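Methods — Computational structure assignment.
A single polypeptide chain was analysed. Its primary sequence is given first, followed by the predicted tertiary structure written as structure tokens.
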Amino acid sequence: MLLALALLQGLAPALAAAGPHGQERWAEGFPACGGRAQSPIDIETRWAQPEPALPPLQPYGAAAGTWELTNNGHTVVLALPRALTLHGLPGAFATAQLHLHWGGSEHLVDGRAAAGELHVVLFDAARFGGTSDALGHAGGLAVLAALLEPGPEPNAAYDNILRHLGSVRYAGQSTSIPAFDVRQLLPARLDLYYRYNGSLTTPPCSQGVIWSVFQEPVRVGSAQVGPLSLPAGPTGYGAGEVVAIVLGTGAGCAGLVLAVYFVAKRMR
């Protein structure tokens, strides 16, 4: 029997940064941020209910050619081809991008943060042409989240990304990197995950996002766990300074940068 778990709705968000640009003020400029299905959350395992009907999550598609890695001023984003798809979601979902969160995970499990978090962002390719089209539509976007914990040895799969950071040291820089098997970034057990309906984790906080947070953490080397050591670029933000989900929607970009900057400064 599969052990995927469905979470009850109404769980509290994991972050609640205070201050004039803190999370509790986001709804003033972005009404969706005041919704009842916001992410990230503190996953209280006592509220998780086994759901045998939830299938394992399995990425498909050949990794070929090169992919673009970009420093957008607050994180590094790896654009993924639409040809990479995922079986196990309610629809034909294709990948859009993935990005990393260091300095602590966004999601908590029973009040505890992991060392980092990987997000793989997908969209319902049967209904939408990309993430921008899917934004705000129920079930239009999905995110796979893998919690990262330090281990005794470097993780070779993650080094496929980290070894290229020197080529995107400043905001706005991009580089092409060899394609690799994204499946290697995920835990071994893809049938063990928490499923809930949530939102983008930063403004505009659009809801309707299908979240799958894997129960099994991914081990990465201790040196790989540290904050991304990219210096500040022309915008004044280093690529590892801000914890944010970046979908490249363009909506509210100025407010997003300002808001997540103060959230990250509070968390440091």
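Note: The mean pLDDT is 79.
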